[in-house]
Amino acid sequence: MQGALSATPAVLTVELDPAVAAGGSPPEPLTRDAAEILAGAIADDLRRIVGEEVAEAGLVMPAALYDLTELLRPGLPMAEALLDIYRGALRGGPFAPQLLALGTAGGRFPVPAIAPARRPGSGPLLAIPFALVAPGPVLDPLRRQLESVLLEKGGASLATDRTLRQLLAVEPVHLSYATFHDLSALLKVQLEHAGFGPLWALLEAALYRPDEPVREALPAGNRFLGLHGRVWTPITGFDAWAARHPEAEGGAEAGYARWSRQQRQYMAGLEAHGIEVIPVAERPGVDAEDVEVALGVAQSAALPDPVWYTETVGEAKAGEPAIVSLTEQATPELGPIAYTVLIQATDGDVLTLRHDYPLSPEAIPRIRDHWQHHANEHGARFHLERPGQLVTTGNPPRLMPWLEYAGEA
Questions:
Q1: In total, how many domains does the chain have?
Q2: Which range of residues forms the domain containing residue 125?
Q3: What domain of life (predicted)?
Q4: Which of 85, 169, 252, 361 counts the highest number of beta carbons within 10 A?
Q5: How many other C-beta atoms lie within 10 A of the C-beta of residue 344?
């Protein structure tokens, strides 16, 4: 018996000049004919690096450039997809080594699920993924050999360099082959060097130990709990954060700005790798020493709206709104951090005082539009105030509305 087919993924890394890559998008995938040319060059490189025995395995490759975040995802879906594509190409017949190059036809990528995202700003390190496919007894020694020699001896040939430049119209500064484990090691070094070691710990757990609970806490007070490729993160409003950190460096305003910046960075970094991030409300037990207990509490406290968190200052009073004032609590670096909502009756009585926190960029216009619509429904005046800073009062400080109506109506 041949044994069940399995796959081992690897990549050709394509390093571009950061100044060239900044702001631009990776090029479009190659057509089928061009894809076969590039796949042939890569196959020649692998025979040179690994040896002729690599020809005993099949090779499947999408002819496109991907950001590393598209490849290093929980469950390594790219590897699974390439294996499924190879199995399908056999049409139920016995395994036979062949070269499968995936390219576009009529401008469409043949497998939409693994089409490159081509997000602006991707890179400067991009990659062309591929997988060697064979029955286990054939593939196992090749996998071990790839892990031992590919990164050390994996420079691309001049022929592959020329082919890549001509077909994809890019000017790589370096080309080399690497396994997915090599990519992970590279990402770890990059993140730790940039001060994002806890982010790597969360990513590593999701990629390689999804059944093991993981907890990471940052000095600014950000907290993350991971399991099964998901991450739960408690959201703390300014008032609660300031009360919890009375001696914050630079004051509560600067400290909470650090918390907000890191919260955004970590949530964006995790989501870029396909990890679902679930914001949760503060609950007793979410900081329990036993991580499984903390996870249980977090899982039961998911916010009803994952992009919008509300910190209520006082119970809302019944009455007909006359003025709806929205104060944009912001910093020059981060933009809007929260919106303080003050709703008053005709006699000046406060009906509502709360803070709405956008947890994603799309939540910012949603919050503004929601309260303007609320004012219109009740025939109330609407004010949007933009003081350009966090407006606070008290000790410990609390967010407060900007009461001098000189902003945008």
A1: 3
A2: 5-191
A3: Bacteria
A4: 252
A5: 20
